[in-house]
Amino acid sequence: MDAVKSSPDLVADMFGVVGRFRRQLRRSAGRGFDSARLTESQSELLWLVGRRPGISVRAAAAELRLVPNTASTLVSKLVADGLLIRTVDETDRRACQLRLAEPTQHIVDASRAARRGLMSEVLGELDDDQIESLTKGLEVLDTMTQLLQERRA
């Protein structure tokens, strides 16, 4: 970026770079789930439960910024498909805890390991200045994510 870009150019560049990065990472490390079977929201829910086993439906909805009814519908579909297990919370019978079915957990674990391994290799090829720039860029993306969440709330 030789010159300061106008806002529309920066927005287009950001969408382009982030989109290409996500697609290339999926292609290089594998999708993890059969993309024809699952929607993006269903996949995101499974990834979240894989990271946080025992999460409640309400907490998952809040984390993914979904309306509770939408999250509940996603959970019901994934439970019916045998990908997710929903159990009644021992301390609050009105709440449910979520965990991945064993085969789903294996897919998530293998995919996460492949992605982390690939990213570690690629990060190892960057120099210190690039790592520093990436770190600062991630901080900016985190701030932008928070600003977007505040607008939606």
Automatic annotation (TrEMBL):
Gene Ontology molecular function, alphabetical: DNA-binding transcription factor activity
Family annotation (Gene3D superfamilies): Winged helix-like DNA-binding domain superfamily/Winged helix DNA-binding domain
Record-level GO BP terms: response to stress
PANTHER family registered for this protein in UniProt: REGULATORY PROTEIN MARR, TRANSCRIPTIONAL REGULATOR, MARR FAMILY
The protein, known as: MarR family transcriptional regulator
Lineage: Bacteria, Bacillati, Actinomycetota, Actinomycetes, Mycobacteriales
